[in-house]
Amino acid sequence: MLDFLGIFLGSLGWSVTSVSSSLRALEEVGRREYFLVLTDIAMPDMDGYEFVTTLRRREAACRVALMTGFGYNPKHTLVKINRSMRCPFYFKPFDRTKLAEGVQRSWIDYHRELLKTAASD
Description:
Elements: H1 2-11, H2 22-31, E1 36-40, H3 48-57, E2 63-68, H4 77-85, E3 89-91, H5 96-120
Parallel strand pairs: 1-2, 2-3
């Protein structure tokens, strides 16, 4: 899945950094700025909720989108994240059009926020 996402998003012109663990992803986000972090819910180091919570605590400016291979379950981590953090999510297998549109929307929202912050300074 990681390879597919890298190839697919790269074919659309996006620069993609792929990592295979949440701890490595946190290191990357701390090292440079990203407009979007696309993360799985189920990960070995921490679940998606813990990961997104950590990103927010570190005040990472990036947008976050989540993906999962699980269907809807009211007790699922995805529901917990969506209620408290309002992140877009994608179910596997992905609808490529929706994923592409979501990445584009994240790019626009990220840069809109940067402009708003710069204008208020």
